Amino acid sequence: MDQALDEFLRYLIVEKGLAANTIEAYGHDLNRFLDYLKKRDIDEVARIGKFDVKGFLIQLQKQGLSARTRARNLVAIRTFFRFLVQEGILETDPVEDLESPKMVRTLPETLTVQDVEKLLDQPDPRSPLGIRDRAMLEILYATGMRVSELVHLPMNQLNLEGGYVLLYGKGSKERAVPLGQEAMNRVMLYLKTARGRFVKKTETPFLFIDRSGTEMSRQGFWKTLKRYGQRAGIRKRITPHLLRHSFATHLLERGADLRSVQMMLGHEDISTTQIYTHVTGERLKKVHEKYHPRG
User: Fold this and answer.
1) Is 237 found in the same domain as 151?
2) 50 lies in the same domain as 155
3) Among 38, 69, 84, 140, fewest CB within 10 Å belongs to which?
4) Alpha carbon distances (Å) from 81 to 47, 78, 87, 171
5) List 241, 259, 283, 285, catalytic entry
6) Residue 106 falls within a domain, yes or no?
7) Does residue 123 share a domain with residue 72?
8) 50 included as an active-site residue
9) What is the CATH number of the domain that holds 68?
10) In angstroms, rounded to a whole number, what is the distance separating the alpha carbons of residues 131 and 138?
């Protein structure tokens, strides 16, 4: 089974070209599944049946893992078995008709425009770190990019003349996202006045770098963002994804079409983007209830 898993992960890297984070997630979930099987003396993929997979999902539920996490594990298992059938290692797929765990779709938290403005005003404009952090916050809110895309953004994917940034999201799919004038101004200020202060002997290709002259970590930026949120007096749990949610919601509230927002977020399926229409719909309902004479 371990050999089959190694071949599958190699297939995802070489033929599918999936991102490193995605490969790591598949490996983690499938190793957990194989450990479960080994404890039950199942050591060959040909012996795995539908009820073994069901038993694994039930165990995950007993461990308190959410329906979303269980569904993600099942996706990894499905993809693994499809690969085994495709390669002729298995004749049939034992999980082909297995239903996914039912998920309750929760509405994403968002910030108001006023809270976003408070957050963006927190970095110190007199210090190189403050100039860098303001540029990072502005570009995150202007594009809705993921934090991993932000901290690993190479300089050559930034086009200030054209006013857009080129991003490679999940599955290495390319998308060009407009920057907006304010984000462009802040990034240009950072490049002119602050970035050179952090550069050491060895130049790095990444746009945003830390004091040591190397690329920033997701955890480091997360802590910085949290600190600015506390300073701004925002009570919600501040995360990079909160700005991504706010970006999408604010665009839709101001009349952007769903397809354009989907493209900017890099969602493969438009149903993933549609959850933001529920957020704006809920807000409209609250406004109606508050102000309509028969609300």
Assistant:
1) yes
2) no
3) 38
4) 12, 5, 10, 19
5) 241
6) no
7) no
8) no
9) 1.10.150.130
10) 11
* 70 annotated active-site: no
Does one domain contain both 72 and 163?
Answer: no
Burial class (CB in 10 A: 0-12, 13-18, 19+), 54: middle
* 126 belongs to the catalytic site: no
A 10 A CB-CB count for 197 gives 14
241 assigned to active site = yes
Domain shared by 261 and 122, yes or no: yes
Q: Which of 132, 244, 245, 250 is labelled catalytic?
A: 244
Per-residue pLDDT of the chain (295 residues; tens, 9 = 90+): 889 999 999 999 888 888 888 899 999 999 999 999 999 999 888 889 889 999 999 999 999 888 888 888 999 999 999 999 999 998 888 888 777 776 556 667 889 999 999 999 999 999 999 999 999 999 999 999 999 999 999 999 999 999 999 998 776 678 999 999 999 999 999 999 999 999 987 788 999 999 989 988 989 999 999 999 999 999 898 999 899 999 999 998 888 888 898 989 988 877 778 777 776 666 666 765 776 566 5
Annotation says 292 is catalytic: no
Backbone angles phi, psi at 178, to 5 degrees: -60, 150
Domain tally for the chain? 2
d(CA 76, CA 179): 35
Task: State phi, psi for 207 to the nearest 5 degrees.
Answer: -65, -50
- Is-catalytic flag, 118? no
Residue found by looking up tokens 């298992």 in the block? 77
Is there a single domain that holds both residue 151 and residue 257?
Answer: yes
Q: Which domain holds residue 284?
A: 113-290
Query: Which of 132, 134, 195, 267 is labelled catalytic?
Result: 267
